[in-house]
Structure formats: C-alpha cells, structure tokens
Amino acid sequence: MPNSVNTNVGAMIALQNLNQTNNELMTTQARINTGKRIASAKDNGAIWAIAQNQRANSQSLNSVKESLQRSQSTVDVAISAGETVSDLLLQMKEKALAASDTSLDSNSRTALKDDFEALRNQLTKAVNNAEFNGINMVKSGGTTIAALANANGDQKITVAAQDLSLGGAAVSLTAGATFSTATQAANLITTINNSIAGVSSALSSLGTGSKSLASHLDFVSKLQDSIDAGVGNLVDADLAKESARLQSLQTKQQLGVQALSIANQSSSILLGLFR
Question: For residue range 14-56, what is the model confidence (pLDDT) as tens digits?
C-alpha cells in the first residue's frame, strides 16, 4: 500500500470500526435503558408485530376479568338474597305450623299471624333490594348475567336469573298468603314446603353459576400471565448479558479512538522522509 497524504486508508478503516462500535454501544445502552431487546418496529418488525398483537390480547383480558368479577358479585348478591328468602320461609313454616294447632287460643294465633305476615313482607323487601350495579337477578323479570369469556367478546358465560318473588317460579307462596284459622295455617304448610324446595333449586343453579365465573376468572388470570410472559420472552433484554456487552463495547470504543488517533498521525511520519 503506497504512503500518501491524500488518502489515509488506515484512518478510514479505524473510523469505520469506531462508528460501528458506537452504533452497537447505542443499541446496548437503549436496551439497558428500556429493558427491551425490541422496543420498536425498526428493531425487528416481525417480532414487534407479534408482541403488539399479544399485548392487545392481554389488555383485552382486563375487560374480561372486570366483566367476570362484576358478574360474580352480582350472582353472589343474588345468592345472599336467596339464602335470606330460604331462611324466611323456614320461619314462616314454623309460624304456620304453630298456628295449625287447634288447641291454640285466638290471641296467640293472631300474634303468629302478624309474625307470619311480617316475615312475608320482609321476603319481598329482600328480593327487591338484591341489586348490584343496578342488576337484580331474583326479582320478577330479573336480569340474566352474560359475562365476557374471551378477548374477542364472542363467547359468554351465562347465569340465568331466578325468580324468587312471592308467587313466582320458585316461590309458590303468594303475596297475600296469610291465615286466620288453624285449617288455613295447616293448608299453607304444603305451599311453604314447595317454596323452600323451589328456592333451594334456584340457589343450586346460582351457586353453580358463581363457581363457573370464579373458575373462568382464575383461568383468564393465568392466561393473561402466560401471554405477558410470552411477550417478555419475545422483546425483553437479558440485562446481565447487555451489561457485560456494555463493558466490552466501552473498552472497544476506547481502543478504536486510540487506533484512529494513531492512523491520523501516520501522515506526519512522512515528513521525516524530507528532512
């Protein structure tokens, strides 16, 4: 290679190597700063697109979880109301059974009647006030729950409403049910027994629905964690590896600067030939 003051090949090569080292150093510093190996589409368009799609799915699952949690709370309120209705029916049966005793005096039977009617009215209040977020599943014409089940929204988990109102599908006891005589009280016992059985069946359905919501909520939480971990595997940087690479590139950068300095001084050596 000829010695020339017009073209310093050594300096050109040293500069190219130094620029490459600087670019690699900037990439490593960016990975350390962001914690990501692929932070934008220009780093790796294909992997970034895959990761972005998975992020969309993960974020959509937040709405699914909220829907499941809200639905679970609504069903749990309905179950609490159903248990209250069942307890009230048990007490009403106790009053009716006591009033069916023909040896009971009229004053005692009247007191039992008043208690019975108070319990009946309390049952109606419990059913009408069993709301969560404006939704009541146990009143007449109650709302059936349809919770989101996936990120696309095309699958639902349905929990059917249960009519626990007086005279409804589960409770055959009517809103005007009462007694004045032992015979009337005795006739109510069968109706109350049927109502207790109907409420138990309704509670069983609500309980199964609540378990389904809870089970799917657990699955969605695990699915979201798996998706987030998968995205991390695609784009996250190995910081231990990047830290070691940073040290190496910083040393390489210093050596590159020295090499460029030496190459730049080579032309001055030619002056010695003319002394």
Answer: 788 878 888 777 777 777 877 787 877 887 889 889 988 988 9
**pTM greater than 0.90 (yes/no):** no
Helices of type H across the chain: 9-34, 45-99, 106-128, 182-235, 239-269
Inter-residue contact 213 to 188 (CB < 8 Å):
no
Which residues pair with residue 157 across a beta bridge?
147
- Give pLDDT tens digits for 75-112: 999 999 999 999 999 999 999 999 999 999 999 999 99
Distances (CA, A) of 251 to 22, 30, 132, 153, 242: 11, 18, 65, 54, 14
Task: Give the Cα separation of 65 and 13 in Å (integer).
Answer: 58
**C-alpha to C-alpha distance for 8 and 264, rounded to whole angstroms:** 7
CA distance 165 to 82: 10
For Cα atoms 135, 140, 141, give the angle at the middle one, nearest 5 degrees.
Answer: 65
Q: How far is the C-alpha of 227 from the C-alpha of 173, rounded, in Å?
A: 52
Distances (CA, A) of 16 to 1, 139, 216, 241, 250: 19, 79, 58, 25, 16
Assess contact for 88 and 126: CB atoms under 8 A. yes
